[in-house]
Structures are given as C-alpha cells and as structure tokens.
Automatic annotation (TrEMBL):
Residues 309-454 form the Peptidase M1 membrane alanine aminopeptidase domain. Residues 484-497 have a biased composition (Basic residues). Its cofactor is Zn(2+). Residues 465-497 are annotated as: Disordered. Residues 1-23 form the signal peptide. This is Aminopeptidase N. The lineage of its organism: Bacteria, Bacillati, Actinomycetota, Actinomycetes, Kitasatosporales. It comes from the Bacteria. GO terms for molecular function: alanyl aminopeptidase activity; metallopeptidase activity; zinc ion binding. InterPro entries: Aminopeptidase_N-like_N, Aminopeptidase_N-like_N_sf, Peptidase_M1, Peptidase_M1_aminopeptidases, Peptidase_M1_dom, Peptidase_M4/M1_CTD_sf.
Length: 497
C-alpha cells in the first residue's frame, strides 16, 4: 500500500483580518482531523453528511470535470474551513454565495465563506473543478490509476483528493450520489445501486447511490469498458459485478472468484450478522497494480489477484471488510487491526468451512512461519505506526490474536462477539480498546493481558503464550500445510503491494 509524507497544512493567519468584526469569535477549522498517523488527513470544525458528485470524464485525455455539492454542518463557529483536494478548482460557493479559496499544504483547499458559519448551522458547499487526475501529484504520487480505456480511484488510506473534494478521514462518513457522464460504450462504476442510466448525444450518464454512511477512501470510481453481471441474493440484495473487457488470461479466474460474491456474502451474514448495505458486488479493472481493496458495497480487485487461478479467499477478505472496516470503521488509522485482523481471520473461517484447514491449523502454521528473531514480531498490530500500517504482522499476527481470543473464550462467546460487534457499532467508528471492552463484556473474562501479548508486545509470544492461545509450538516442517495456505498467501501478498 502507498503511504505518503506528512505535510501539515499551513495556517494562513493573515486571512483572519478579512473576517468581519462581528465574527471575531469565529475561527478557522483545523487543517487536519487529529489523526497522529496522518496529521493532514481530514479537517476540523465541520461534519459532512452527504456528497453529490456530478462528473464528466474523457477517457482519451483523462480530463475529469466535476461539480461537487457537500451538505455539512458546522461544529464550531467557523470563519474558514478546509477541504482535502488536489485538482484545479474554478469556483467555490458556500450557501449559494461565492467564497474565497486558496490552496496550502500538500492537499488543502482553504475556503473562506462570504459570511462566517455559526456552530450547529447546516451549510452547503459547491465546488467546480476540472483537471487530469493522473497528472496531479500529491507528495509525488497519484492514487488515480489511468487504464487503456479509462481511470480508477481505489486506494488506502486516501484516494478522494484525486477526484472529489472532501473531509478525507474515516471519522467523517457520509452518504453519496455519484453521477458520471462518459462516452457511449464506456461504463462508470461506483458504490451502491445504479439508480438510472441514460444516453444522449453520444454520452451515457450513470447514476449511483450509496445510502449508508461511507468513508471517503471507500468511495470508488471506475471508468472503462466493462462486462457487467447483475443478480440478486436470496435476500433480494442487488449484486453488480464488473470485469474489464481486456483481462487477458486472468479473465476466467477473475469471474470464477468474484461471481461467488453472493454466496460469500450470504455465508458471511451467518458469521457477522445482516449485511449492512444496499448492494454488493465487485469489480476487476485492467490495472497493473496487485492489491485488492474493500471499497464499500463493491470491492476493487487487481487482475493479478487471479494470476494463479481462482481465489475465493480474497473475495472473503474484502467482503468481510463490509462489516469490519466499512460499517464499523477505524476511529484513527492506528486501529487498522479492527479491519485487517478480522478480514484475515474470515479467510481462516472460510477455509475451515471448506474443509481446507481449520483456523487452529492455520494459526499453528502462521505462528511457525516466523522465527522469534524475524522483524515480523517487532511490528505491533495494535499500533503499527503509519509506515507499517499494512505490514504482514497486521494481517497474520492480527489473525493470531483473534484465534487466541477464540481459544480463551470458547466458540459460543467467540461467535457471539463476532456477530455482536458489527451491530454494536454499525455505521460508526471504533477503537481497539472498545473491542477489548466489548469482548470482555460478552465473555465475562479479563482479556487485557491476552491482547497485550498478541497486539502490543514487540516480540514473538513465547511457548507459554502460544500454548495459552491453543497454538502449537512445533516448527513449520513438522506441521501439515493447510490446503488453503497458498490462496490465503496470494490474497495477502496483494495487500502488501
Ligand atoms: Zn484487508
């Protein structure tokens, strides 16, 4: 996963002079939402409830033109506020009136409304823009993947700044209407349900709606020439999958994996409770990257995920995130284990159900893979730091921590916790400490030492620690290799690209 340098926004104190005297008590919203891993991510002083994105894209030139309308509310008396955005802006209006705007930091758009905003008041922001996202570098990088027939926005922890202005942090989730005009014969895919589609004068407009709170990095846009399959689950949930027309040798394996989305979502609902969103699906564009991402309702899969054949493990992983990561999102990026530990453990549960190796066998084998002096054990999944946010330890040791919990509390309490947690924090945000408290409440067991051992110590849990987690201390060569091991490896390898 890409990570970037941190350049906090610069406070333009001189702007305060332009605020009318009657607004002396108003102050600028902060340039970051307060996440120590990414101080410039998100912004302070307001909360967005809805994004309406009306876009037009030219695949030949990569020109993206847009009008973004944000429905927000002030959380303090605001003289000015920031949006996170990298593209060229031509106009900003707040509550219908032209607003002053300027750029600062690595991706800050500072907006000064004509009139200050009172705490608690709703407001509407309209931003007009046009640019070529593949040419927009933020800290030397673009998250926009241009393809031979279009472009894709799917990255973690940030991708929004290359296609719409936002409060770019999982703490500020919102609903979305995404409307995209493309030349006839090209498709535009986003999250949720396709509410309508119409053609006129050689262009087709696709209107997508995602009607439950959604984090900015989980909002995706895929433009290109796709084959689209549609179905409904047994519960009546619409399934929309999309495959680039030029996946080459990976085309069959991609379909053989992603077409099982409905089946996997149904099984996951048995593990984690009712599916939280209005649609499900996945898409495989013709990108050159290797990773997959849990974009809400419609995960993104790189074709390379299927280079060695069908891989249901990666589908299980990304769909598990719909509960663990998407509905219940991190409070700060240090809480990444709540996403990746559980999505990885879901692959172990699927393996167990498929008769390809139990979670305990996979835990034994995983523990044996890494000798005590391997740097793997120095990364603490409970607070890995921004440079190691997507390290193997967050996934593998993260799943071991969950197996240790299962051994400690027993299957009845364990599966009650797995199902109860997404309901307890549905559509919200949570910290690892919240999970530990919840698991203690359900199981009645003190668990802080267990989680300290598996999530927070910078060393390999010793033989006693392993035994107390039901994990074998035999070497990898003495253990049978679980049948699912190779597929699970392949699914995880992509995440670490
Ligand atoms: Zn994941």
């Amino acid at each position: 996963m890409h990570r970037r340098l941190i350049v906090p926004g610069v406070l333009a104190a001189s702007l305060l002079l332009t605020v009318p005297a009657s607004a002396a008590d108003h102050s600028p919203g902060s340039a970051g939402i307060g996440d120590p891993y990414y101080p410039a991510s998100g912004n302070g002083g307001y909360d967005v409830s809805h994004y309406d994105l009306r876009l037009a894209y030219q695949p030949g030139s990569d020109l993206l033109e847009g009008t973004a309308t944000l429905i927000a509310a002030a959380e303090q008396d605001l003289s000015r506020f920031n949006l996170d955005f990298g593209l060229k802006v031509s106009e900003v209006r707040v509550n219908g009136k032209k607003a002053r705007f300027e750029t600062s930091g690595s991706h800050e758009l500072e907006v000064t409304p004509a009139a200050p905003l009172a705490k608690g008041s709703p407001f509407t922001v309209v931003v007009r823009y046009a640019d070529k996202p593949s040419e927009v570098k933020i800290d030397g990088y673009t998250a926009w993947a241009r393809t031979p027939d279009g472009g894709i926005a799917a990255q973690e922890p940030e991708s929004a700044a290359w296609w719409y202005p936002s409060n770019d942090h999982p703490l500020d989730k919102a609903t979305y209407d995404v409307s995209v005009s493309v030349p006839d014969g090209t498709q535009a895919i986003s999250n949720g349900v396709l509410t309508s589609q119409s053609s006129q004068l050689g262009r087709t407009r696709f209107n997508w709606r995602s009607d439950k709170p959604q984090a900015t990095y989980l909002t995706t846009l895929a433009i290109g020439k796709f084959d689209i399959t549609r179905d409904t689950t047994a519960d009546g949930l619409p399934i929309v999958n999309a495959y680039s027309k030029d996946l080459g040798a990976n085309a069959g394996a991609a379909r053989a994996s992603v077409e099982r989305t409905g089946e996997v979502a149904e099984w996951l609902s048995d593990q984690f409770g009712p599916y939280p969103f209005n649609a499900v699906g996945g898409y495989v564009p013709n990108v050159t990257s290797g990773f997959a991402l849990e974009t809400q309702t419609r995960p993104f899969y790189s074709p390379k995920q299927f280079a060695k054949g069908a891989n249901t493990s990666v589908v299980v992983h990304e769909l598990a995130h719909q509960w663990y990561g998407d509905s219940v999102s991190v409070n700060g990026w240090k809480d990444i284990w709540l996403n990746e530990g559980f999505a990885s453990y879901a692959e172990w549960l699927w393996s167990e159900k498929e008769g390809e190796g139990t979670a305990r066998e996979l835990a034994d084998y995983t523990y044996a893979q890494y000798p005590a002096d391997d740097p793997f054990w120095t990364v603490r999944p409970g607070d890995p730091g921004p440079d190691n946010q997507f390290d193997a330890a967050v996934y593998d040791r993260g799943a071991l921590a969950i197996q240790a919990l299962r051994e400690k509390v027993g299957d009845d309490d364990f599966f009650a916790i797995l199902k109860g947690w997404p309901a307890a924090h549905a559509y919200g945000n949570a910290k690892i400490a919240d999970f530990v408290n919840y698991a203690e409440k359900i199981s009645g067991e003190p668990l802080s030492q267990l989680f300290d051992t598996w999530l927070y110590q910078p060393s390999k849990p010793d033989a006693a620690g392993a035994r107390s987690a039901g994990i074998s201390t035999r070497g990898a060569s003495e253990l049978p290799r679980p049948k699912s091991w190779t597929k699970i490896r392949a699914a995880h390898a992509g995440h670490r690209d």
